[in-house]
Amino acid sequence: MNEKTRKFINVMYKILGIAPIIAAAVFTILFMFVLKDRTEERILHSATTFLLWMFATIFYIMIIAFFKNKKKMLFSVIGMFTSVALAVVMTPLDRYVNLCFIRSHIAAYTAVVLLAAVYIFVLRWRKPFES
């Protein structure tokens, strides 16, 4: 991996490292002052879709990092497209509620745990790419 690629990956990991903090602040303001109904559903929906977009971004970074390793790159491409497709499907709140929230709250709350796992992943795995 060349130096330019390594620098790009480091910048992307830094952005991913602070993105959950910025998103939490923005969503907190939105939920306190603008979006007052269906709060629990909206919080879990925003966490789930945000998580899926973070997964897509992480897989994109992995595509760049493992460009010469075709097996890892193929896995990353499949993961990225799956994450983007799920994010697009889950984006409308009513569809999300029908798919995840009404049948079982466990699926919705799992997204919050996965968001924490992604955050830990980003903080740990960016170290191999640092200079």
Write a brief structural summary.
With 131 residues, the protein is an all-alpha fold.
Rough shape? Answer: globular
Helix fraction, binned, reads over 70%
Profile the largest sheet: none
Distance between the termini: 12 Å
What is the chain-wise order of helices and strands? HHHHH
Give the helix/strand layout:
Elements: H1 3-33, H2 39-65, H3 70-90, H4 93-101, H5 105-125
Explain what the structure shows.
With 131 residues, the chain is an all-alpha fold. The protein has helices at residues 3-33, 39-65, 70-90, 93-101, 105-125. The mean pLDDT is 80.
Which key features would you list for this structure?
single chain, mainly alpha, 83% helix, 131 residues
